[in-house]
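Summary of Year 1 activities. Much of the first year was spent building the evaluation harness for sequence design. The harness presents a backbone, in tokenized form, and records the residue chosen at every position. We chose the following record to illustrate the format because it has been used consistently in internal testing since the harness was completed.
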């Protein structure tokens, strides 16, 4: 079980809304989100309703301003708690629909290009655990949550292109 509190203004001021589960549309609770306090759990915040738009991974801590979570603006319209798992397994494919070379990961990788020499990653199969994809190496750039399941092409994980630079397991100590 997790707990997150959204505040309309910076530094935990203004109207607020406490949440302890997935929420597909937060628009009726606040008009903007400028600070967040995560009391427990790992969360993915989304810029638009129904878990779409830019994604932001937040773990336990205080975020006094949306720039602290690398936000592009003060729009948070949906959120998901990321379930805790002990084991992690991810298959990465060079081409769409699980074609081309395949590699399997069980731990974090700060640079997929350096480690596997893939120029692009077109499909993923999450066998165990939850993972965060980062657009750039060293866990930077746009973020995407991968939950257990199949991602046959980049649109399935909400990306606008096949650029993936690094991946990280979602862990409680993360």
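For this record, the design step produced the sequence shown next.
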């Amino acid at each position: 079980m997790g707990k997150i509190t959204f505040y309309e203004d910076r530094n935990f001021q203004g109207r607020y809304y406490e949440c302890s589960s997935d929420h597909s549309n937060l628009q009726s609770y606040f008009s903007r989100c400028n600070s967040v306090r995560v009391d427990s759990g790992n969360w993915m915040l989304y810029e638009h309703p129904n878990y779409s738009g830019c994604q932001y991974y937040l773990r336990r801590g205080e975020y006094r301003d949306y720039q602290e979570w690398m936000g592009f603006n003060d729009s948070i319209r949906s959120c998901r708690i990321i379930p805790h798992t002990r084991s992690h397994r991810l298959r990465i494919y060079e081409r769409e629909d699980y074609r081309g070379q395949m590699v399997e990961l069980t731990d974090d990788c700060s640079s997929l290009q350096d480690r596997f020499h893939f120029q692009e990653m077109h499909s993923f199969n999450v066998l165990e655990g939850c993972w965060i994809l980062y657009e750039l190496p060293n866990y930077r750039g746009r973020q995407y949550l991968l939950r257990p399941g199949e991602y046959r092409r980049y649109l399935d994980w909400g990306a606008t292109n096949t650029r993936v630079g690094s991946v990280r397991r979602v862990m409680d100590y993360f």
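The first helix runs from residue 112 to 116. Quantitative recovery figures across the full test set are reported in Table 2.
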